[in-house]
Design brief:
Length: 559
Amino acid sequence: MHGGSRGPSLRERVDARKRRYRSDRTNGGPAPLTPLDEYVGVECPGTEGETDVAGTERLFGLLARKIENTPCPWSGQDGGHAKARLNPAIPAGYTYLAQFVMHDLVVNQPLGEGLPNGAGGTSLRARPLMLDTLYGYGPAVESGCYEAIAQGADRSGWPRTRFRLDGVAGDDGAPPPDTARCPCRDIGRAVEIRNGIARGTALVADVRNDDNAVLSQLTALFQIAHNLAMDRLETGREPATPEASALHFAVARSGLTHVYHRILRKDLLARLLDPAVRRHYEAVPGAGGALCDDGDPAAGIADLTQAVLSIGHAMVRDTHRFSDAPDHAHSLRAVMERTSVRSPHHTPFNRDWIVCWSEFFDLGIVTPQLSGRIAPCSDTPLWDETLFAPPVPGQPAGLAYRDLLRCTLSGVRKIDALCRIIAERRPDVRRLSPWLSEPGLREEAMRRWLDADKSVALSGLRRSVVTNPPPTLYHLAEAAAANDGYCLGPLASIIVADRIYNLLEAHESRPASNIVAAETAKVVFGSRVPASMPDLVRWIERHLPAQHKRLGGTALRWS
């Protein structure tokens, strides 16, 4: 949910795509998708693969209005609209965990979101799913987000092995006199005055993880887990040598990465994926890679990005309860604005903004707040112009239009093309669901959504949406029609599972390193290695020192 900045117009995207394709042909780069495969929006009559810019902008504007205006398909059931929109299968915290995982998979330049690779767009990380979004290049390079356990001249040159965490601000919002004062529950932050203006910086390896107040604290949760792992490895004693200190850091990172992989496989994917798709990928060794094995390691990453972005934005709540205190509920707008860049004077966070994790994950203490069910509709302020300005003046504001624009000319494949590729490469996967083999079923889902709200007429553009829907829109409609919005639809599930299982199996297929990671996880976390977010939160709470649970004489709840 990157807001604020404007992005490139559709015309700029078309021009960038043409430049890239000319460069690829000249330099022997990977062949672009054929006009029959790539989604480019509304195509010029008689010219497949050529974007009708005016027609596409008009269509996307109308579709964005329909997404905003179309009622929730489950309204009137389960006690009314508000309750019907909630998803009891996925607590709200997993929305932000999925965003964190996407940051660990891909890197992108927000001003160029959606442009083809090489033109400011999205690309696969060099080491995807290895917690590089948390650790970056390590303390030697990302020194600003790390600190040493001991200070002094005799420790100069020693590696920094702990993440920097900031203390909780006072109830009046005043920062603590010493930002390392306990309890340290926020990510590291820096505020400085330059040219009379306060400017804030999140001291994290990936600044996208300060995109909102929940995500930054989820990042801090993983940082706290690492710091506690270091404390357990060193049992309160300073290491004898710099080399020993660096070794402890490597062990802590290896153990936490192993836990992270277990959480992905056993917790996040178990909730997000269509059940039949997950059972297949869990049962069949080497099932991943059908959409990304054509010689280009980044093939399929655009499809994955669009699938996860579209469902993630649909799952967002319009309010977030940070604790059981009545005044600790915050609007989505406030959650998105509470970052180092947008609100430097309001960092570090005070107790009103410190997350109690039982409100976001099911710890068996209270009923956690739930994510939204997945559908092409929204009742959240993601269409607000102040949060998501138009890409260029005169175009629609809001996230729906940006999402539609982002999936155009970025290497995202057409829905029919994806189903054809799956049928050709993996007939066993194709047989998992009729949604993959019956175009009529997919088209009927789009017709039902188009007919759900008559206030926005598409006139001559309707057939284009039915037969060649924008992928970001189709994934929402499929989830709603196939699984009542409780999880991804079959095609989106395959896109996600194909990439993530392929990466997890690549890590696990190296027996020596996988065995070492599993053993180090036992050293760090004990015999019961966490396999879910509730497990990790409980482990942290058991080992978190008392001074990090109290602010003055008052308990500051963790779970």
